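In this section we walk through a basic example: taking a raw amino acid sequence and producing a predicted 3D structure, encoded as discrete structure tokens. The instruction is simple. Fold the sequence below.
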Amino acid sequence: MIKFFRKIRQKLLSENKFNRYLLYAIGEIVLVVIGILIALQINNWNENRKVNIIQQKYLTLLKHEALSNISGIDNETHKIKIMTEGQREIFRLIDASKDTLTEEYINQTFFKAFTTLVGYNYENSVLTEIKNSGELKNIKNDSIRMTLMALESYYENVKYQENAVNILQQKIIDHVGLNGDLRQVIESYDYYKYLGIGKTKAISKGNKYILEDAYFKNKMIEYLGVTINLTNIIYPTMKERYIDVMNRIDEEIDDKK
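The resulting token sequence is shown next.
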């Protein structure tokens, strides 16, 4: 092909047809430029196609991750609500006549309120991989990208609230341990068998009188407050954010079909 064009140029020059040669040369340059532009366009199309394939893969994985976290929040909320029933029952016991209360029932209520460690298993491996690999910039949908970036910071708020619940729970357990009888609490649900110890034979003053303890009652107010805030505000808001991510991803995937 190159020899063909060279022969044409040589022929035009030999025939002293400079104007025609000039037009031909310009035409040849235009063809070369067009060829380069077409090649660049094809290359850009291929690169965009690769980016879109990677983006679709990550969006699908992010959707599955969001679904997993929604399930985790639901399970954790259900677990904590059982704990909250125990917390509220303690306030009923505080207000009840102590003559009608049995140590066994008090201990069972304490067990229900104080033996749940809060914190669901947050899945963020896909989001972490996208951030660390620099692929976050290739998610072209600005709303999805900004939502993902905000998601991680809000999760810190979730963990802070979960930690607040666990800290207050531990403070109350420590107080009962110092001023009451934790062994009676674990014996109320036969937990001592799990620990591999026998039932205590020692005489104990029990835990009934702790219901009158000012420190105990004040910490219970805080404990119930942060727990309710977690299950009624923090978790639902986090769940809504995951649902929002899923909806935006579904819209983006549908647009690419």
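Looking at the output, two observations stand out. The radius of gyration is 35 Å. The chain has eight helices and no strands. In the next section we compare this with other chains.
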